[in-house]
C-alpha cells in the first residue's frame, strides 16, 4: 500500500501544478487525521485524498469532452457549472487509469466537490479535508469549520455546505442541486441535534 501511495504521489506531482500538488498532499494527510479520529481505514482515506483532484488539470470544454467520450452521463446542472466535473471524471480516472477498485474510495472522489445527502464516512472525510486543509485561506467560515471538524463531522459538513452556498449565491454563481440537497439533509441533522440538546 505504501508503494502505491508513493507511486501515485510521484505521478500526481508530474501532472498537477505545484500549488495543486501541495493542496493534494495536504488533503491526503488531513484525510488520515480525520480517519484516525472517526475510525475509518487510513489507507483508503489517504488514497482518496491523494486522488481527489486528479482530474483538475482539464478545462471545462476538455472535461465535458472527456466525460462524453467515456459515456459518463452529464446533468444539466453539471453543464451549467462544469467546474464540478473534475470530481466525476476524477472518479472515473481513479477507477480506470489508477486501477482503484474500491467503491468507497471512488465515491469519495466522486462527491468531494458538491457533496450529497447521506454521505458515507469516507465521503464526509474527503469533503471536509478538501475545505479545511492548512493551505486553504479563503472561506469566511474556515475558523469555525476547523474548530468542529474533529468534534462533530456532520455539523462540520453542514457548516461547509452553508459556507459554500452562501459564497456561490453571493457571487451570483450557479449552484449544482446536489449541494442544495446535501444542505437540506445536513441542516435537518443539525436541527435534530439542536432539538435533542434542549
Ligand atoms: N455545488 C456547486 N455548484 C457549483 N460550483 C461549485 C459547487 N461546489 C463547489 N463549487 C465550485 O467549484 C469549484 C471547485 O471546487 P473544489 O472542488 O473545492 O476545487 P478547488 O480545490 O479548486 O477549490 C470552486 O470554485 C467552488 O466554489
From TrEMBL:
Residues 20-135 form the HD domain. GO terms for molecular function: bis(5'-nucleosyl)-tetraphosphatase (symmetrical) activity; metal ion binding; nucleotide binding. It catalyses: P(1),P(4)-bis(5'-adenosyl) tetraphosphate + H2O = 2 ADP + 2 H(+). Its EC number is 3.6.1.41. Pfam families: HD (PF01966). The keyword Nucleotide-binding applies. InterPro entries: Diverse_Catalytic_Enzymes, HD/PDEase_dom, HD_domain, HDIG_dom, YqeK. SUPFAM superfamilies: HD-domain/PDEase-like. Keywords: Hydrolase, Iron, Metal-binding, Nucleotide-binding. This is bis(5'-nucleosyl)-tetraphosphatase (symmetrical).
Amino acid at each position: 500500500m505504501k508503494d502505491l501511495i508513493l507511486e501515485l504521489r510521484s505521478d500526481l506531482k508530474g501532472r498537477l501544478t505545484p500549488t495543486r500538488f501541495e493542496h493534494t498532499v495536504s488533503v491526503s494527510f488531513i484525510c488520515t487525521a480525520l480517519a484516525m479520529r472517526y475510525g475509518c481505514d487510513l489507507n483508503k482515506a489517504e488514497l482518496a485524498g491523494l486522488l481527489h483532484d486528479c482530474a483538475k488539470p482539464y478545462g471545462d470544454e476538455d472535461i465535458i469532452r472527456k466525460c462524453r467520450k467515456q459515456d459518463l452521463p452529464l446533468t444539466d446542472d453539471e453543464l451549467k457549472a462544469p467546474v464540478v466535473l473534475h470530481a466525476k471524471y476524477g472518479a472515473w480516472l481513479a477507477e480506470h487509469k489508477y486501477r482503484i477498485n474500491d467503491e468507497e474510495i471512488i465515491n469519495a472522489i466522486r462527491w468531494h466537490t458538491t457533496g450529497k445527502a447521506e454521505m458515507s464516512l469516507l465521503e464526509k472525510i474527503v469533503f471536509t479535508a478538501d475545505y479545511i486543509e492548512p493551505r486553504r485561506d479563503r472561506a469566511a467560515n474556515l475558523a469555525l469549520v476547523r474548530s468542529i471538524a474533529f468534534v462533530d463531522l456532520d455539523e462540520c459538513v453542514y457548516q461547509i455546505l452553508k459556507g459554500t452556498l452562501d459564497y456561490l449565491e453571493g457571487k451570483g454563481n450557479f449552484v449544482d442541486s446536489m449541494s442544495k440537497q446535501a444542505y437540506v439533509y445536513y441542516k435537518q441533522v443539525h436541527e435534530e441535534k439542536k432539538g435533542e440538546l434542549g
